[in-house]
Amino acid sequence: MQYFWNNHLQQHFKEEETLLFTALQDNLVTQAISEHEQIKKLVEAITSTGSFQPDQFRSLADALDKHIRFEERILFPYIEETLSAEKLTQLGERLQQIHQTGEMDNYPDEFWI
User: Fold this and answer.
1) Do 76 and 83 form a contact (C-beta atoms < 8 A)?
2) Are 33 and 20 in contact (CB under 8 A)?
3) What span, in angstroms and rounded, lies between the C-alpha atoms of 87 and 29?
4) Which sign, positive or negative, has the C-alpha torsion 104, 108, 109, 111?
5) Do residues 71 and 32 lie in contact, with contact meaning Cβ atoms separated by under 8 Å?
6) Residue 74 in contact with residue 28, Cβ under 8 Å?
7) For the residues 5-15, what does the mean pLDDT come to?
8) Start-end of H helices in the chain
9) How far apart are alpha carbons 25 and 28 in whole angstroms?
């Protein structure tokens, strides 16, 4: 969980906040940023204690699921409807530049060893 946060999800949130969310300043964007902060706090709570509780992981999984559904069903369609085609094209090109090399996942999964 910590590896995924440090190497994938944290960067993903940063990209959304600096690329997508700056184009609009409204309640939906505020909600998305607030959910990012909530997820970050849940990750920090899990990693800071050293004793992992199943309820903490359930809370994190629920928060992530809720956030993903919010983005898929409400926020991203709203962004697509609100921003101009030109702005959406610019954002798409920028995201392609960022992800040109593809993600490397070097997590040493002992299951496969």
Assistant:
1) no
2) no
3) 17
4) positive
5) yes
6) yes
7) 93
8) 2-4, 10-15, 27-49, 54-70, 76-82, 85-98
9) 8
Query: Which pLDDT belongs to residue 70?
Result: 98
Count of CB atoms situated within 10 Å of the CB of 43: 21
Under a CB-based contact definition with an 8 Å cutoff, are residues 79 and 24 in contact? yes
Q: What amino acid is encoded at 50 in this protein?
A: G
Distance (Å, whole) CA 75 – CA 89: 17
Give the closest residue to 69 by CA, choosing from 61, 81, 59, 80: 61
Residue type, 76: F
Average pLDDT over residues 40-69: 92
Residues 6+ away with beta carbon under 8 Å from 112: none
Residues 6 or more apart in contact with residue 99 via CB below 8 angstroms: none
